[in-house]
Design brief:
Helix content is 25%, strand content 22%. It is built from three helices and five strands, in the order E-E-E-E-H-E-H-H. The chain has helices at residues 93-108, 117-125, 135-147; strands spanning 42-47, 52-57, 60-70, 76-84, 111-112.
Amino acid sequence: MRPSRCRGRRRSAARRPSRPDRHPHPYRHPHPHPRGETMSETAIRDDRAAGRLEAYAGDEVVGHIEYFVLESPARALVPVHTIVEPAHEGKGIAGSLARELYAMSAREGVLVAPLCPYVVKWAARHPDEAPAADPELLSAATAWLTAHPGRF
């Protein structure tokens, strides 16, 4: 029995023909918000007293960032959790909340010391909008959170 002609032969990437008729990401939906709702239909409001930055679709809260305001060693907004309701995931809500948090901090002239893993990742992907956090502020924010275990 003769071995297969294909065994051991590989075509290099340079020889593969391009496929301009195919979407560059075939497994991604071409519309950024495939479930219908877009961020333009969502409003973001700050409830400072409750420590929540909330995204609303109509009268319904569809996502929020829980945060606190650190006073020392410098004033900073400290996001702790980002939550989006399961029915509204994949619509850009979490990213819009993170973007608004950094915009709020810029308007108020305060820093952000993110403890929320999502906000940390978002900030790393958007360094032009999210300045790097000061390690001293992050340490102080972690200490504050440890001293207030029932808060979050």
